[in-house]
Design brief:
Serine Threonine Protein Phosphatase 5, Tetratricopeptide repeat, 2 strands, 71% helix, 433 residues, single chain, two-stranded antiparallel sheet
Length: 433
């Protein structure tokens, strides 16, 4: 069943608890009684390309300005995040490498080193991201952005103790939007929804531009969605798009909530708009079309996903996780197992454990699947899809009581987690009643 987004792993370590909620910012105290401040908004006029073009004009006048090249690289990375268009990665790499070369005779620009770490994370080279961040730390240990690179990399590698230490250093040094939003993800994955929401509200008040505000609202929306509240999620996705109409994850998220609320025509329009910008959402759209009976349309979306990943693989950027997840549900489960074993060897994170468990189940290897599902549960995570997968695995093993427990939990967390999966979970619960 579908995975709406890459699931960040739950940290299996000491709870940060109230320390994450210490009401302070880089400039002072946030008073709890203060009403939320409106975030940056620009509507349809907002276009980060204008800022990029200004940097390029400056570089045309002074092409040896290493700092501006580094800044341009970060702008391209922001564009990649808001549009999910991987083509911006090559542009970011070229700008950051230019900055590094210009600084090679003296001290390499730390911003460029940090940018290379962010780029490595974006390309799923999390070990490489750690190397870049460590290099930045050796040169400038108080550049707090490097700890964000470390936090993200360690989370994806499944090194949760190290991720927590990096985040703590980031929070201690600069409790800002970047650190608050990371802390919110961790709190949510621990099941601490209230603290996660409060952290995100504080983060949104610190947004410096429409893209940051949209990203923060999108994360608030994701939280509401994951907790089974599509109405609240749609409202937050709408706020994100009001600030930044080009924010593709918010567009796809809005479509997801519209489908859950029964507005299928608008869901199809928003999914089509998202997929037109990024094939990352093609499978999700295809699964909705399958659910609605448009099987030809679904096949077209799945074909777009396959074609996109063939291009990535030809360029040396095979995404074993994404391919494995797709093959488990819509292709060859044995191929899925092969890809996901490769991914597990590279990073033992919670979402990989769950994906490998599901692929093994789909391949008929239910006992081995149960071991990986248990590993995912041990790593942690409050996730409806994970619970559904474990319920299906236990049902296949004939453990009906355990199957009911996990299927019930999936629907309690988010009864809309997947169009087909939710229907299947209810059918199995009725069958085993």
């Amino acid at each position: 069943m579908k995975r709406v987004r890459l699931v960040l792993p739950l940290l299996g370590c000491v709870l940060l608890g109230g320390l994450l909620l210490a009401p302070h910012t880089p400039t002072g105290v946030i008073r709890d009684e203060e009403p939320p401040q409106p975030g940056p908004s620009a509507g349809a006029s907002y276009d980060p390309a204008v800022t990029i073009e200004a940097a390029r004009r400056r570089l045309s006048r002074d092409p040896r300005d290493a700092a501006v090249w580094a800044n341009l690289g970060h702008m391209y990375l922001q564009q990649a995040r808001r549009t999910t268009e991987t083509g911006y990665h090559a542009k970011a790499e070229a700008a950051l490498e230019r900055s590094l070369r210009l600084g090679a005779g003296g001290r390499p620009p730390v911003d460029a080193v940090i940018g290379m770490g962010e780029l490595a994370n974006a390309r799923h080279d999390h070990t490489g991201a750690v190397r870049w961040a460590v290099r930045a730390r050796a040169a400038a240990p108080h550049r707090w952005a490097l700890y964000g690179v470390l936090t993200d990399a360690y989370l994806q590698l499944g090194q949760y103790d190290r991720a927590e230490r990096a985040l703590r250093r980031m929070l201690d040094g600069r409790p800002d939007l970047a650190s608050y939003s990371r802390a919110a993800r961790i709190e949510h994955l621990r099941g601490r929804v209230g603290p996660a929401r409060e952290l995100l509200r504080r983060a949104c008040r610190l947004a410096a531009d429409p893209a940051e505000y949209a990203s923060c609202q999108c994360q608030l929306a994701d939280l509401s969605w994951d907790e089974g509240d599509p109405s609240a999620a749609r409202a937050a996705y709408t706020l994100a798009l009001a600030a930044d109409p080009g924010h593709v994850p918010a567009r796809a998220g809005k479509a997801r909530t519209e489908a859950a609320l029964g507005d299928h025509d608008q869901a199809r329009r928003d999914y089509a708009a998202a997929v037109a910008r990024s094939p990352a959402y093609a499978v999700e759209y295809g699964e909705l079309l399958d659910h609605l009976g448009d099987h030809a349309g679904a096949r077209q979306q799945y074909a777009a996903f396959v074609a996109h990943h063939k291009v990535l693989a030809a360029n040396g950027a095979t995404d074993h996780y994404a391919i494995g997840v797709f093959q488990a549900d819509h292709g060859d489960p044995r191929t899925a197992v092969r890809h996901l074993r490769l991914e597990w060897a590279r990073r033992q994170a919670v979402e990989v454990a769950d994906a490998l468990a599901w692929a093994l189940h789909r391949a008929g290897r239910h006992a081995e699947a149960a071991r990986y599902a248990a590993r995912a549960a041990a790593l942690g995570g409050r996730n409806a899809l994970f619970s559904y997968h474990r319920g299906e695995i236990e049902y296949a093993r004939g453990h009906l009581a355990w199957a009911r427990t996990h299927l019930t939990r999936a629907l309690e967390i988010n009864p809309y987690f997947s169009p087909g999966g939710a229907v299947r979970a209810r059918a199995l619960l009725a069958e085993t009643a």
